Inverse folding.
């Protein structure tokens, strides 16, 4: 299915596989490498366009394995468990970073808070690629004015043009 999607001209492949809790991976890195990584590697051989992976939680122990397969984007970086500045410093030249706007801000904050949080997550050197978005998803109960503020701030400050 992935091969066919690439053949018909999709711009990117976006897969969703939650590999972690906020505290760390759902399984040990060794178990991940023996139980999950082989099928991901098989899939990666069929992907001829940028691959964006959605996986929640603290994936730090798995990042090198994921990037070695050619993943071009990681979504989301949840500010509740991942330090985006440290992640940008270490991996930002190798992968487009998506996320870091707290879901709680989108659902219970103000438009001004959402705009400021989006701006803050976007302020970075031009060598690092980031695309501000929700630190998880945009739930149906998110305030529309906050989602609009996220989009407006992203348009004002984004530096992620091509992954």
């Amino acid at each position: 299915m992935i091969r066919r999607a690439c053949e018909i001209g999709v711009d990117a492949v976006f897969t969703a596989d939650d590999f972690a809790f906020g505290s760390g991976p759902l399984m040990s890195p060794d178990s991940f490498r023996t139980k999950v990584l082989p099928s991901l590697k098989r899939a990666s051989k069929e992907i001829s366009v940028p691959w964006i992976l959605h996986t929640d939680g603290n994936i730090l122990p798995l990042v090198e394995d994921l990037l070695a397969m050619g993943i071009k984007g990681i979504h989301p970086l949840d500010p509740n468990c991942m330090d985006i500045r440290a992640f940008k410093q270490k991996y930002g030249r190798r992968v487009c970073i998506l996320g870091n706007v707290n879901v709680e801000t989108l659902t219970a904050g103000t438009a001004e808070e959402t705009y400021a949080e989006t701006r803050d997550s976007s302020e970075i050197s031009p060598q690092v690629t980031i695309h501000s978005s929700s630190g998880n998803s945009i739930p149906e109960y998110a305030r529309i004015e906050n989602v609009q503020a996220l989009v407006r701030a992203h348009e004002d400050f984004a530096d992620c043009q091509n992954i």
User: Anything to note?
Assistant: The chain has a mean pLDDT of 86. Strands lie at 13-16, 20-21, 24-25, 51-54, 73-77, 96-99, 130-131.
